Amino acid sequence: xxxxxxxxxxxxxxxxxxxxxxxxxxxxxxxxxxxxxxxxxxxxxxxxxxxxxxxxxxxxxxxxxxxxxxxxxxxxxxxxxxxxxxxxxxxxxxxxxxxxxxxxxxxxxxxxxxxxxxxxxxxxxxxxxxxxxxxxxxxxxxxxxxxxxxxxxxxxxxxxxxxxxxxxxxxxxxxxxxxxxxxxxxxxxxxxxxxxxxxxxxxxxxxxxxxxxxxxxxxxxxxxxxxxxxxxxxxxxxxxxxxxxxxxxxxxxxxxxxxxxxxxxxxxxxxxxxxxxxxxxxxxxxxxxxxxxxxxxxxxxxxxxxxxxxxxxxxxxxxxxxxxxxxxxxxxxxxxxxxxxxxxxxxxxxxxxxxxxxxxxxxxxxxxxxxxxxxxxxxxxxxxxxxxxxxxxxxxxxxxxxxxxxxxxxxxxxxxxxxxxxxxxxxxxxxxxxxxxxxxxx
Length: 442
Description:
This protein has helices spanning 2-16, 31-34, 60-77, 81-87, 95-100, 118-131, 133-153, 156-167, 280-315, 327-355, 361-385, 397-409, 414-426, and strands at residues 109-110, 113-114, 173-176, 192-196, 199-210, 217-224, 230-236, 242-246, 258-269, 273-274, 317-318, 321-322. The protein is of the alpha+beta class. Strands 3, 4, 5, 6, 7, 8, 9 and 10 form an eight-stranded mixed sheet that branches. Strands 1-2 form a two-stranded antiparallel ribbon. Helix 10 (327-355) packs antiparallel against helix 11. The radius of gyration is 25 Å and the shape is globular.
């Protein structure tokens, strides 16, 4: 206010001397003085969300990976994420930084991949998502979908050819299953693969494919016109007949470059067919592992929002006191913190079930659906706590609020994942009324 009052009085003196108002000639207002704010997300807050000391459950190696990823994200990504999110552009200059973390490839052993425990990989994903959800989606599409498909379903030659450079993020991959007419009912895909001498011809469309506008290699799923089963193929980005067009106007994960893929008589050699994909059930093996990682994204997002709110409420003053001193602020902050502790412990237990070979489709679907539901509640509370600043990307929460929406939907919507678990515990499938057509392939 002192700045504004000084300028007002100077202007009145000018008018008193018969001079014209000089409002439009004044230097830019120093907003940092006139409108003090809390520290923005470009300077990321310390982690305050590990209230139940989850770190004690991690091995020293897992703790080390967590801190390495946290430091990189806070230093390299936090300062630029809001700018790139607003522009809906990808910060390609951070890819080498992410590659140096040595987490791409996750649990894959050999071929230059890190061979992490599932828990180490999960906490790495959460730390990436804590700062920026889009970067975590970029990594998961590349690593938990594309690379894992090659590792589980590829030939030895394919693994040797593709995995080493993908593990270092020297090349980037995408994973194309979803189509314009088929999202949750992915097994009904209509893209076709027709056998010809020496290879295959792919025809069809894919939609919502992350990384597709710049990926070097695309994992494409198509229906074999002879067997009517789902097969997988590795397609190079410059293949004749292949086009990928960016999907515009997203409200969430704006940094992620989702694309529409058009395949018009795209030729693929026999060497680039994935021999281990011969049905939709083979695809489901990959989806189960990747869905576990997706469940850790909302955990990381919630951690970041809590950390931001925790700092903000102590810095921001209203009615002569920090916002953190008010009972209703504390109640919401504690509710957020409680949600995060429960989410983390479910995620951790899910990793252990996977590592012990005991995780079922119902386990991971329940975790993904419940965690994203609680994350939605947590982020909404954070948006409330920040008041007007809660709608600015400067303070992370608004961006996280939007980024969580597509995560709530992809890798199985909340409803579809509850039905997967419901089928497992009841023994009865309820995806599609029998009167409407053929039995669901899910």
